[in-house]
């Protein structure tokens, strides 16, 4: 009986089970893929500085950018205010409560930012964030 147990141990001890290692590597790969795509698309603008900032980055976050010429972009695509309203209303029909961030260049006319904020109020979007840069 003892010799049978010894033979079983030698057969089993020769192989290494790599399944848990592969599972851990796949989880790390998925986390890496998700975090590498976590940035919000948009146009590069010179953001005004603020002393405190709050992150509003979520997968369904819509980014509205106003560059220094006053051109409005929705997720890096140029739009007019009418097109912006149509696209945001369509998104609201799919996802009623999604966050919106507004990125305005420091040199942009204040009236253009106010018109975008007024449009968001008319659509009844209430999760709005204004993006600022960190002070130097």
TrEMBL record:
Compartments in which it is found: Cell inner membrane; Cell membrane
Xref: InterPro entries: ExbD
Membrane-protein topology: Single-pass type II membrane protein
UniProt keyword list: Cell inner membrane, Cell membrane, Membrane, Protein transport, Transmembrane, Transmembrane helix, Transport
Record flagged with keyword Lipid biosynthesis: no
Family: Belongs to the ExbD/TolR family.
PANTHER family with a match to the protein in the record: BIOPOLYMER TRANSPORT PROTEIN EXBD, EXBD MEMBRANE COMPONENT OF PMF-DRIVEN MACROMOLECULE IMPORT SYSTEM
Subunit structure: The accessory proteins ExbB and ExbD seem to form a complex with TonB.
Job description of the protein: Involved in the TonB-dependent energy-dependent transport of various receptor-bound substrates.
Protein's name in the database: Biopolymer transporter ExbD
Originating species: Steroidobacter gossypii
């Amino acid at each position: 009986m003892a010799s049978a147990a010894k033979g079983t141990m030698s057969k089993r001890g020769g192989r290494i089970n790599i399944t848990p290692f592969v599972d851990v590597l796949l989880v790390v790969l998925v986390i890496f893929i998700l975090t590498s795509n976590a940035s919000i698309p948009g146009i590069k603008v010179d953001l005004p500085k603020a002393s405190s900032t709050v992150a509003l980055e979520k997968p369904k976050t819509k980014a509205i950018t106003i560059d220094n010429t006053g051109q409005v972009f929705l997720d890096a695509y140029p739009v007019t205010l009418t097109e912006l309203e149509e696209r945001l209303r369509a998104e609201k029909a799919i996802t009623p409560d999604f966050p919106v961030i507004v990125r305005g260049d420091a040199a942009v006319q204040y009236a253009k930012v106010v018109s975008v904020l007024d449009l968001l109020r008319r659509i009844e979007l209430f999760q709005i964030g204004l993006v600022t840069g960190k002070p130097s």
